[in-house]
Design goal:
The protein has 21 helices and no strands. By secondary structure, the chain is mainly α. It has one domain: Growth Hormone, Chain: A, CATH 1.20.1250.
Length: 459
């Protein structure tokens, strides 16, 4: 009787701790992605006029999306630096630092003078702050999802670790609400002059809330055990070296899985805004449509995570990747129903929401899949490399490539854009086929295998 009571008490305590970890990780992810999406949307709606005046609409967008890409270029560096120290010092400390860095950078973006006020220095400062923002976000994602994945039971890891992923559409949802409200309340002159800055300044409040919540969590027992083991053994090589030398297949698989998913997301939530504006849809309407998509996305992701624990990671991910190959032909056909200003709300919302549903089939499962590919001692580094190194050639340039492939005004042709998206989907299909199912894998067993490998290598 007493043993059963103690077991239930321990289980309740573990569940409470897990929920606290999920809340802390998700809160930070909401903050990070609120700020990242604010930038992405501002790059479409504001920055061409504020920082690149005098250019054509298309050229201004290309310049603005180039600064957007800078943040992605900084991500791998942030992932490597945060991964290295996160594997040695713990996930919690690095996550507190990342949220402060991205918050400060975003707040300062809202304070920047325009090109008309200080000339070329304005876009230069924007690029510097964007780099800092991207550096911090590059270190954020791996730590946030691993903190949850390492606390989760083996049988429910995909479900629980999908919640930080839900923080992305939730952060984007909040950002869209803020921008939508400002855009609706202000005229174009006021919005371009100071209104957009309010959305950036609001990040200070959200950052404080996320940072405060993260103070209350601790690293998972599996991480503590790994660090205690490392302290009693001779120092291992740099985690970066170990990852590429001992786990090349896992790195390649993670990068291929990430490639298509990353492109799809930024096409749907960023490039779609640009395309719909170019064919004559009102900005206020577009933001409202994207808002609906984000709302569906945030509830869809945990559902897919639960399915990943029940049916396995591979079949769901492969389904998402295959659907991505056909998605652009479906979506652009529906979006074109708005050509000439005749707005078809149902079809436009359907195209955006369908894209995020396809994306969720892949994105929801990445934390569990990536965590189960690498041992604890190098997991933060391995996951960050797989996710962030890929982002340079995928999400960072997806909106830029989309604009470049559209052709010239006014006869936009999306065929080449659709081909590009489909090809990136094929890469993730191949990655899903290469992936070896890890449903129910024990992180402790994975650490034991790695420990034995290290001892054998040292003779």
């Amino acid at each position: 009787m007493g043993a059963a009571t103690n077991h239930k008490a321990d289980e309740a305590s573990n569940n409470t701790q897990l929920r606290k970890v999920v809340t802390a990780s998700m809160a930070g992810t909401v903050v990070e992605w609120y700020e990242f999406f604010i930038y992405a949307t501002a790059a479409t709606l504001v920055f061409p006029a504020v920082f690149f005046p005098g250019e054509t609409a298309r050229t201004g967008l290309i310049y603005a999306f180039s600064t957007y890409a800078v943040g992605f270029a900084a991500r791998p560096l942030g992932g490597l630096v945060f991964g290295h120290f996160g594997d040695k010092l713990g996930r919690k400390k690095l996550l507190q630092l990342s949220i402060v860095l991205v918050g400060v950078a975003t707040f300062l973006m809202g304070c920047l003078p325009s090109y008309a006020q200080i000339g070329f220095l304005a876009p230069l400062l924007l690029v510097i702050l964007r780099f800092i923002q991207g550096f911090a976000v590059g270190g954020e994602w791996g730590g946030a999802v691993l903190l949850v994945a390492e606390h989760s039971p083996n049988s429910k890891r995909a479900f629980w670790s999908s919640f930080p992923q839900s923080g992305v559409p939730l952060g984007n949802f909040i950002a869209t609400v803020v921008l939508l409200s400002l855009y609706a309340l202000l005229d174009d002159e006021a919005f371009l002059s100071w209104g957009w800055r309010v959305a950036f300044w609001l990040s200070a409040v959200i950052v404080f809330v996320g940072w405060y919540i993260r103070r209350s969590v601790e690293d998972a027992p599996v991480f503590v055990q790994a660090r205690e083991r490392a302290d009693t053994e001779p120092p291992e090589k740099l985690a970066l070296v170990t990852v590429f030398k001992a786990y090349p297949r896992q790195v390649l698989t993670a990068m291929m899985l990430r490639a298509g998913e990353n492109v799809l997301y930024y096409i749907v939530v960023t490039f779609s805004i640009t395309y719909l504006r170019l064919i004559g849809v009102d900005t206020l309407r577009i933001l409202a449509y994207v808002l609906i998509g984000h709302f569906v996305h945030m509830f869809w992701i945990p559902l897919v995570g639960a399915w990943g624990d029940r049916f396995g990671r591979k079949p769901l991910y492969l389904t998402g990747a295959l659907l991505m190959v056909g998605y652009p032909w479906f979506a652009f056909s529906l979006w074109d129903e708005n050509m000439g200003g005749r707005v078809n709300v149902t079809l436009t919302v359907l195209a955006i929401t369908a894209g995020l549903i396809v994306h969720g089939l892949m994105y929801a499962l990445q934390p569990a899949m990536f965590a189960e590919l690498f041992p604890t001692s190098i997991r933060y580094t391995g996951v960050s490399i797989g996710a962030q190194l890929t982002s340079i050639a995928t999400g960072s340039v997806a909106p830029l490539i989309g604009v470049a492939l559209l052709g010239t005004e006014p006869d936009f042709d999306w065929t080449n854009v659709a081909i590009y998206i489909s090809l990136m989907g094929v890469i993730s299909v191949i990655g899903a086929l290469l992936y070896r199912e890890t449903k129910g894998a024990s992180l402790t067993d994975l650490d034991t295998v790695e420990h034995e490998r290290v001892l054998a290598a040292r003779g």
